[in-house]
Amino acid sequence: MAAKIPVLSQTEEALGAACCAPILESVLSAEEAVQLAKSLKALADPVRLRLVSIIGASGEACACDFPALLGKSQPTVSHHLSLLVAAGILEREQRGKWAWFRVLNDELAAIRAALGPGIAGETTG
């Protein structure tokens, strides 16, 4: 007899990769808070947000293009890329002389799931 495999919703799948349940629905443990803070800290910089945006929009990108695109030096760009890779947001692949990067969509989905949908009926402005 074949085993039944549970079907997960997108939110449940993202939470499987996430550190935690949505922060407005349950209390984070200390470990969950550390993991989520690490991911958010990696994104909490304009240069790193632009890198994720550029790479995500193109599917993948070569490190050789970033200094000109960002108006930053190669060592600065390399530092930001290293932080994003260490946080599990980007994946790095060496191709000859150059490093190529891809966004790890599961990690971004996990961050989004941890932040949750917000409070129902809440308006901004």
Outline the secondary-structure elements.
Blueprint: H1 10-17, H2 30-43, H3 46-58, E1 61-62, H4 66-70, H5 74-86, E2 90-95, E3 98-103, H6 105-115
Helix pairs in contact: 1-6, 3-5
Count of spatially separate domains: 1
In total, how many beta strands?
3
Specify the number of helices.
6
Main beta sheet: 3 strands, antiparallel
As for the CATH topology, it is Arc Repressor Mutant, subunit A
Structural class: mainly alpha
Architecture (CATH level 2) name? Orthogonal Bundle
Computed Rg: 17 Å
Q: What pattern of helices and strands is seen along the backbone?
A: HHHEHHEEH
Q: What do the pLDDT scores average to?
A: 82
Side by side, the strands of the main sheet go 1-3-2
CATH superfamily: Winged helix-like DNA-binding domain superfamily/Winged helix DNA-binding domain
**CATH class assignment:** Mainly Alpha
Rounded to the nearest angstrom, the distance between the terminal CA atoms is 56 Å
Low-confidence stretches: 1-18
Beta-strand percent range: 5-15%
